[in-house]
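Question:
When you can, review this sequence-structure pair and walk me through the tokens.
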Amino acid sequence: MKKGTREDYLQAVYRVIYYIERHYGEELSVERLAKVSGFSKHHFHRIFFSVVGENVSAFIRRIRLSASSGKLSQHSVTKVAMKSGYETPSSFAKAFKENFGLSPSAYAKQRKNIKESIMIDVKIVDFKPVKVLCVRREGDYTVSAGEAFEVLMSFAYAQKIKSKKNLLGKEARIFGIGYDDPNSVPAQKLRYDACLSYDDPSVKPEGEVVVKTIEGGKHLYHLHRGAYEGLKEKYAGMMDYMIENGIKMADKPPFEEYLNRDPRRTKPENLKTEIYIPIEE
């Protein structure tokens, strides 16, 4: 691990901040900003949010709001409000009063200095590749995960009945892969894979059930105890830890392993979920 990695993270994010300041009037796509940062599109949002404290689209709006101050002497409040993405002059005026007067770079530094990191226990582990059956669903994770697992478990139970194959035996492992950052991607566009370990080639996937491999390698690991609603906070804490300790993410999606056999029959406070974030070796 390079000593300057943490600084590289911060430099990359500030490079994007300054780029936004210079080009705020242009179309700033995720692809464009990710290229400026040097990160993959997949991880850009998470890293930016962890450093700045808000997602990139909200940050861009803040920049445009600040820049609008110079236009008020030439255009009406209504016209400036519309150009800044606000529906009414009153909402624009309120936001302007609350936020104007602080430069974007100063804001980012201030957020970084005052933001309270979530102190969590983490460690680096070597995860072995796992072949899985999986089902894809899109939508809010709190909904799409349940829908995907319903299809996957129905397939597994059907195998037990018609093929005498118990895919949910004691050795079975259950995973979930969330590909998108809910802080930056619309809920209806979030991608989720429900996965079940798979080592019996005689079982033939069908319909929505497909076979894939969860890749192995070095991962930052944390055991979350409690309701699934608390996972988002833990991910944020792990990202803070990575940046503070100069750990680089690998270009692969994070994933979770669910240790409870039947979450529906487990009290939320007794749920156990392992979080894995792939890192560069």
